[in-house]
Amino acid sequence: MWFVVIGVLLTLLKALDVGPMVDISWWWVLSPFVLAILWWEFADKVGYTQRKQMDKMDARKEARRQRSLEALGQGDKQQRKRR
Asked: By three-state DSSP, how is residue 62 classified?
């Protein structure tokens, strides 16, 4: 995601002819987009993206389970001992 943000900023600066961006080649300006594509391909191949999604889903599932247990009055054992 950061590569895309950097690429957009560099593209805007180049298109608006701001400062030293006037002399920089378009290849350098567009290179963060290439890096973003390479990162996404790598992340998909090694399973990083899927693993992150599964971790988020597991966290949501556990939070939903805890809310359900608390609604039934069977919340965390530590909380029951304090009462």
From this structure: helix
Percent of the chain at pLDDT > 70 equals: 92
The structure's pTM equals 0.59
Interaxial angle between packed helices 26-46 and 48-71, expressed in degrees from 0 to 180 and rounded to the nearest 10:
60
What single DSSP character describes residue 19?
A: G
| Residues 32-65: b if buried by 16+ CB within 10 A, e if exposed | bbeebeeeeeeeeeeeeeeeeeeeeeeeeeeeee
- Interatomic CA distance for residues 28 and 26, integer angstroms: 5
**CA nearest neighbour of 33 among 9, 54, 66, 57:** 9
Residues 31, 5: contact at Cβ < 8 Å? no
